[in-house]
C-alpha cells in the first residue's frame, strides 16, 4: 500500500502582514488617524494635522521595528503598562500569624 501524500503550502508559519505592517501596527496607525480626524476633521489643515502625523508614525514604526520579532509592539506596550512589582498571589489565601519564639 503506497503512502498517500498531499501538497501543502510551505509558509504556514508566516505572520500575517498587510503592506509590510503587522495587524497591531496597522490598528495603532488607524487608531491615531481616527483620533486626529475626530479632533481636527473640521479644520482646513487636514493634510497637515491628520495625514502627515499618521504617515510619520507609520514610517517610524516601519523603521523602528526592522529586525525586531513579531508582535513587538504588543509586547512593548504590555511591558510598559504593567506594574513594576510582580507577585505570585495578589492577596494572601490565609491569614497566617508569624511563629512566636
Write a structural description.
- The chain is 47% helix and 4% strand.
- The chain is built from 3 helices and 2 strands.
- The chain has a two-stranded antiparallel ribbon.
- The termini are far apart.
Quick overview of this protein structure:
This protein has helices spanning 23-40, 46-64, 72-81; strands spanning 17-18, 21-22.
Which key terms come to mind for this protein?
about 5% strand; flat; about 100 residues; single chain; two-stranded antiparallel sheet; mainly alpha
Termini gap? 77 Å
Q: Which geometry do the CA atoms define?
A: flat
Low-confidence stretches: none
Helix share of residues? 40-55%
Pairing-aware structural class of the strands and helices?
Answer: mainly alpha
Number of strands: 2
Largest sheet: 2 strands, antiparallel
- Rg (CA only): 24 Å
Please write out the topology.
Elements: E1 17-18, E2 21-22, H1 23-40, H2 46-64, H3 72-81
Antiparallel strand pairs: 1-2
Helix pairs in contact: 1-2
Amino acid at each position: 500500500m503506497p503512502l498517500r501524500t498531499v501538497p501543502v503550502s510551505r509558509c504556514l508559519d508566516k505572520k500575517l502582514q498587510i503592506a509590510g505592517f503587522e495587524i497591531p501596527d496597522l490598528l495603532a496607525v488607524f487608531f491615531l488617524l481616527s483620533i486626529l480626524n475626530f479632533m481636527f476633521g473640521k479644520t482646513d489643515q487636514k493634510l497637515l494635522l491628520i495625514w502627515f502625523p499618521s504617515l510619520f508614525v507609520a514610517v517610524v514604526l516601519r523603521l523602528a521595528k526592522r529586525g525586531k520579532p513579531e508582535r513587538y509592539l504588543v509586547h512593548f506596550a504590555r511591558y510598559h503598562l504593567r506594574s513594576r512589582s510582580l507577585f505570585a498571589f495578589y492577596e494572601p489565601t490565609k491569614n497566617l500569624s508569624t511563629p512566636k519564639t
